[in-house]
Specification:
The protein contains ten helices and eleven strands. By secondary structure, it is α/β, with parallel strands linked by helices. The longest helix is centred in the middle third of the chain and has 16 residues. It is globular.
């Protein structure tokens, strides 16, 4: 594995962007009583330029993992690294972005003022801040609402400005905690499209979610957690493949040809589980109908 180059002490050329080894977090009560294991012996690698999903039910350890990788809390045992450095390192923080599950933004500021504030925290020059603000507001689709105070934003708009805030420093690595939480199907699709666009730009994205469809749509690889333990990790395409069933998809197959095909399969003693037309998804149907202008009336 290439060691990569160093930029201000941060490894920017390594194949592995995020790594955890035996990462464990145990919470205890007073005097060390009633220990609760939030995360146990997590081994994980996130490659540069991929979208990696942490999947699991509430209480599975997803948010704990993100907080450990961000340096917001400290592990009981084990170790982690982001861009070759320990989480929380000041140099690392300059190269990462974070969208928490709930965006705590100043409600009296508008989009421009919000992004300008966070740009100042990263000490971006005035000209660069202005350029980044314009690019990000256009990217998240808030041009028409950029002068409106955040308190007047819908949940979807708040998530979008929160994502723009996480990108103000043009980070190498982006941490997203439940990025589509509480959004309607249109808002969800928009956020997922933004994540895929970030991947095309070469960003590394680690997202936490309990929404299966969101993870399936955007992630290259996933890890499934349950009660603080890693249950499975791998490529989405491999994990979802049903290897003992072969699906054949044909276009405009005549009834005679279909019967002939069934006869051939019967001769091979192959069980025909199903031959049917492919289905769309409910999300695709909803977006096609709601996003159509004008809406077409279907005739029976």
């Amino acid at each position: 594995m290439a060691r990569g180059t160093k930029q201000a002490g941060v490894s920017v050329g390594r194949e592995i962007a995020i790594e955890a080894k035996g990462l464990t977090k145990v919470y205890t009560g007073r005097f060390g009583r009633n220990p609760v294991v939030a995360l146990r012996d997590l081994d994980l690698e996130v490659r540069r330029g991929e979208v990696f999903g942490l999947l699991g039910p509430n209480g599975s350890g997803k948010t704990t993992t993100l907080k450990l990788l961000l340096g917001l809390i400290f592990p009981t045992s084990g170790a982690a690294s982001v861009l070759g450095q320990k989480p929380g390192n000041v140099l690392v923080n300059q190269h990462i972005g974070f969208l928490p599950e709930e965006s705590y933004l100043y409600q009296f500021l508008n989009a421009d003022e919000t992004l300008d504030f966070y740009g100042r925290l990263f000490r971006l020059p005035r000209g660069e801040r202005k350029k980044r603000i314009d690019e990000l507001i256009r990217m998240v689709g808030l041009e028409s609402a950029r002068r409106r105070p955040i308190r007047g934003y819908s949940k979807g708009m708040s998530r979008r400005i929160g994502l723009a805030q996480a990108l103000i420093n043009d980070p190498e690595v982006l941490f997203l905690d439940e990025p589509t939480s509480g959004l309607d199907p249109i808002g969800t699709r928009e956020i997922k499209d933004l994540i895929l666009d970030l991947k095309r730009r070469g960003k590394t994205v680690l997202l936490s979610s309990h929404l299966l469809a969101d993870v399936e749509d955007v992630c290259d690889r996933i890890a499934i957690l349950k009660t603080g333990e890693l249950k499975v990790v791998g490529a989405v395409s491999e994990l979802l493949m049903v290897k003992d069933i072969t699906q054949i998809r044909l276009r405009r197959l005549s009834p005679d040809a279909l019967e002939h095909l069934k006869a051939i399969l019967a001769e091979q003693k192959t069980e025909v589980v199903e031959i049917s037309h492919p289905r769309s998804t409910l999300e695709e149907l909803f977006l096609r109908i709601v996003g159509a202008a004008p809406v077409e009336t279907r005739k029976e």
